[in-house]
Amino acid sequence: xxIKLLTSSGVxxxxxxxxxxxxxxxxxxxxxxxxxxxxxxxxxxxxxxDRSRLVSLVGDACTNFGIFQVINHGVGSGAAEEMLRVAxxxxxxxxxxxxxxxxxxxxxxxxxxxxxxxxxxxxxxxRDYLRLHCHPLxxxxxxxPSNPPSFRETVxxxxxxxxxxGFRLEDLISESLGLEKSYIRKVLGDHQQGQHMAVNFYPPCxxxxxxxxxxxxxxxxxxxxxxxxxxxxxxxxxNDGRWVAVNPHPGALVxxxxxxxxxxxxxxxxxxVWHRAITNTKTARLSVSSFLCxxxxxxxxxxxxxxxxxDGSLVAIYRGFTYAxxxxxxxxxxxxxxxxxxxxxxxxx
Length: 349
Ligand code: OGA
Ligand code: NI
What we know:
The protein is built from eight helices and 14 strands. By secondary structure, it is of the alpha+beta class. The chain has one domain: Jelly Rolls, CATH 2.60.120. The strands form three sheets. The protein has an eight-stranded mixed beta sheet with strand order 1-2-10-7-12-5-4-3. Strand 1 (42-44), helix 1 (51-64) and strand 2 (67-71) form a beta-alpha-beta unit.
């Protein structure tokens, strides 16, 4: 079926179209989700917190959860609120206006799309999304939507603040792995590292038990910083075999470490977290994912310090690759296949 934006039809769906229905074995099983009681760590990044304590909190969160929330993170509440506001306004634009930006070609650096990878997937997802490249801003911002009129300025401001936070987090993560503070930042390309954004819109869904906003996946980039709707929950992470809701925390941003840092650089010490977005019948949900990525030619491989086995031998689980190679492979597939990183494993006897 040829699918287009969920938000272009103008009328709410009363039943789920068949192409969104998951097979019985692959449904969200919402009644089994841990909705409270298990807290994803909330880490206070204010300067008052002792650095070595911060490093150990980040290390514990990465080891035990692969995801955490941060508060007092330096991204102004104004910048975050404005970002969500302009995102909501964007998705309220008339269908004809939005369809001008529609594309299902993942190679496009600016596109409004739907689901995940429409041409590759068998079952679709209940999501529309706008994808933007954000670095360098002078190159990419002029490609972005010009409506709403404040879009480019608001999103540019937000992107710059997020980038600063991303660098601070990369430094904390490097230190938590016992590496030099700037290790990850430098491998990713320092100030040249890439930055992409997905503005996700999940409309109310007639049958949330039968489909996903986004099915279980890990993020292919290095580090993701998610601004989620402050009122509507929907993000869930896999922890110890159970799906756990990451409930919105006032003013917090959600940080999760993607394939590049957690698996490749850390040699499997920190696992890139499996997460998904679910839908609900009543309220649309917005989220803004900022993806920090290695620059295209960055060579990603396990950090030499982290590949030494107990007997002193060198064991790198993954082979080295450039990010361009990884990214191309990622988008040539769908989210339900074998994990993309499996294709980059060394064969170790
Ligand atoms: C993503 C993602 C989760 C959410 O954009 O990669 O996982 O809650 N989003 O929207
Ligand atoms: Ni994700």
